Amino acid sequence: MIALVQEIQSALENAKDPSRVEQMEAYMKNHFSFIGVMSGPRKAIFQQFKPQLQQLSPEQFWELINECWVNPYREVQYIGIDYLLAFYKKNAQPSDGQHLTFILSNQTWWDSLDLIATHSVGHYALQFPASFSELAQEWESSANFWLHRTLLIHQLKFKQQTNLELLQYYIHTFKWNKEFFIQKAIGWSLREVSKWNPDWVRQVVASENLNGLAQREAMKYVPIV
What we know:
Blueprint: H1 2-14, H2 21-27, H3 39-54, H4 58-69, H5 74-91, H6 97-105, H7 110-127, H8 129-141, H9 145-153, H10 164-174, H11 180-194, H12 198-207, H13 212-218
């Protein structure tokens, strides 16, 4: 896997625009180092390697992603996410909890976590509910607020399949944390539900005494009565 990831990095470096680096790093609050490859060229490089990546065995699936994840450049990590999103349904296993925890807890920022949470974690939760229940208890007990954000938003694409009782439980559990990314996640999760159940959202906002950012986001599409 190391050789393959080095090939991917070389392809990215051949497509770089050095003038973009400062801007890209500033947008990510200087948390990450960038090569200078924009989304379009990066996705083209992923497509270039996709036939090769398709041939990897289930055992090599997480090995490739983890190798991307420990790479110092954010674009290589993005390739790992592209690969995860493209092939996770094919490779998902009940034992994936430790791998999901690793990539959600390391090299973490909203740009990576939100994709992984709403796609891969969401699929894992639906496919392996018993395993996810155990994993969710670990995440709830963790001091890592990114794992808490994951619990709040992993159902974003569930629509009417959303477990409203579970969502309110997480809102109630984490609402004390005024961290921007938690309050935003509370509001975002409720805003999605409001598209098909505004009355429930109105009730939750009132009963949980939500205010500020969480309330504004939650009530964005809720009719005033």
